[in-house]
Amino acid sequence: MKYRQLGNTEMKVSEVSFGTWAIGGSWGNVKDEDSLAALDRAMEAGVNFFDTADVYGDGHSEELLAKATKGKENDIYVATKFCRSADITDPAVYTYESVRAFCEASLKRLQRERIDLYQIHCPPTDILRDGEVFAVLDRLKREGKIREYGVSVETVEEGLICLEQPGVKALQVIFNLFRQKPAETLFPKAHEQGVGILVRLPLASGLLTGKFSENSTFAADDHRNFNRNGESFNVGETFAGLPFETGVELSRKLDWIGESRGNMTRAALRWILDNPHITCVIPGFRNTAQVEDNLGVQIVSPFSGDEHARLREFYEQNVKNAIRGPY
Q: What is the set of active-site residues?
C-alpha cells in the first residue's frame, strides 16, 4: 500500500481508502458480518483511513467502524461528517451547541475520544459563505474533540469558498471519469494551499465497473433507485448526475480502459490516482470481494499522456453536457 500526506496535516493516509455509505445503508441489503469481514481485509492490506457519516444507516456505519477498529484507534484514521441528520438550511444547526452535540454523538458511536477528520456534510452554499461554522470547528479542535476538519462539497464553487478558510484541511469531492470539472481549477488551488482531496464516488455509483445494463435494477432502499433523478438529495451523488441509461451507454464506450488493467473498476481508480493533487480515493464496498477488487488498483499501470488526453476529449465531447445539477 502506498500512502499520501493529507494536505499539510500530520496524517499520511492510504491512497486506496474506503467510504462506508454502502455498509451503513441506502445501497440495498448488506449483512454486518460481510461488512466487518471486508473492513478487516482492508486493514490487513494496509488501508488506514475510512470515511463515514452520522447519517449512514443512522449512525450504523460509525458503530461498525468502532467494532472493526477496536484496539487500533491509534493506527486507523476515521473521518466522519455531520449536519444532514437535521435541517441543513437552518443556521441553528451550525451553532457551537448543535455541532458539539453531533460530534459527541459520533464520538460515542465510534468509541473514540477524538475524530481525526470532521467534515461538514454537503451543506448549502450560503452556510459556507457565511463562515460561522468554521469558527465552531476551530473551537472543537482547540477542545481536542477533533484533530482536523474539512468539508464534503457538491460543487467547485463551494470548494473554492472553503479554501478561503485557513482551518479547512481537506475537501471531499465527487470526481471520476464522468465528472472531471474539479481538476481544472479546484485541485491545483487546493494543492497550492496544502489542502487534501478525498475523492468520493470514484466509480460513479458503479457505472464505471462496466457491470450494468439498461435493464439493471436496484433495491427500493438503494439510492440508485430512489435518488436516480435527485428526488432525495443532490442528483450528482447518484451516477455522477447522468441519466442511468446514458451512463450505461457511455460506460460501454470506455470499456477499453480495462483491457490491459484487469477490469474497468481498477482502471477507473487508477485514472484518479494518476492525478498528483489527489490524496486518496474512497470507493464504497459491501463485501470482501469488492474490497479486493478495489485494492487491485495498486498493481495497475498508470495511464499514458495520450490516454489521458483521449479520456479528457471523451468527457468534453460526450459526457460534460449530459450531467445534471450544479457541479
A: 56
